[in-house]
Design goal:
The chain is α+β, with helices and mostly antiparallel strands and 261 residues long. The chain has 2 domains: 107 residues; 136 residues, no CATH class. The chain is 47% helix and 18% strand. The protein has 12 helices and 9 strands. A hairpin with a 5-residue loop joins strand 1 and strand 2. Helix 3 crosses helix 4 and helix 8 packs across helix 10.
Length: 261
């Protein structure tokens, strides 16, 4: 008899509502992530909720829903408390901004990043269309940023590295066949309801693929893009939102998002 595959503790506490949306109870999530004092976790939630609402233009109630429930106290008694149902996007933001010294925080980041659906990825990307400008000023490319990686189409990669799409396609096949990067794990095909992004319904490739292609086509520009992406990622980890060079220069942190009807 084969051993049953162990479920992730985050999968165990997942709640799926009637519409198919997935939620996580804030108190259960706090416990799994190693937060013994819930009020510390509440402060983290407030920080993430503010970043999603103000810096990324997302509606708070769509990702943080208040509920009332009975909680068991340390002395064995129970009382009614206010908790939250957290969306996948909210949980990902929490995992990225939580205390990285806690062992379960890394597992949380890996779980929520690995279980992103195309629809969730699209929602998270709507406010994160960044502009990459090369050091020479000759290259200006729109880049999609989501949580902890970047996404480009073959056309954008061709613009970035100054080559033809056919060349990009050739190297993608070589990379996949060599096993350097497994494309099945590194691509998404999504539609984004954003006026900032012209390409719709195309296949996007993550940062690992972009850099792998770049080193084969234009190693200098690949290195410059890797340095830039590391800087943006550091800003995201520290502040909870991502800014491109133009926004950093102007110190603008509000990202315009096309609101859903």
């Amino acid at each position: 008899m084969e051993a049953e595959e162990m479920k992730s503790p985050f999968e165990e506490i997942k709640i799926t509502d009637e519409s198919g949306s997935e939620w996580w109870n804030s108190r259960q999530l706090a416990k799994v992530m190693g937060y013994t004092k819930y009020w510390n976790f509440e402060r983290l939630i407030d920080k993430v909720a503010h970043a999603l609402q103000v810096e990324r233009g997302l509606t708070r109630n769509n990702h943080f829903r208040e509920i009332e429930e009975m909680a068991r106290l340390g002395n064995g008694t129970s009382r009614r408390v206010t908790s939250l149902l957290l969306s996948h996007t909210a949980c990902m933001g929490i995992a990225c901004n939580a205390d990285q010294r806690k062992p379960m925080v890394k597992m949380a980041r890996e779980y929520f990043q690995g279980t992103l659906t195309g629809n969730e990825l699209a929602k998270g990307m709507e406010g994160n269309v960044l502009i990459y400008r090369s050091s020479t000023g000759k290259v200006n490319v729109s880049v999609l940023f989501n949580q902890d990686t970047f996404w480009l189409s073959q056309q954008r990669m061709a613009e970035l590295f100054g080559t033809a799409v056919s060349t990009i396609n050739y190297h993608l096949k070589q990379i996949d066949e060599s096993g350097e990067v497994h494309l099945s794990d590194a691509i998404r095909k999504i539609r984004i309801s954003s006026e900032q992004w012209e390409e719709q319904g195309v296949t996007l490739y993550n940062l690992d693929v972009v850099i792998a292609v770049g080193y084969r086509v234009n190693s200098y520009e690949a290195t410059q893009f890797r340095i830039w992406s590391a800087k943006v990622l550091k800003e995201y980890i520290v502040k909870g939102f991502a800014l491109d060079d133009e926004r950093l220069e102007r110190a603008i942190v509000q990202i315009s998002v096309l609101q859903r009807p």
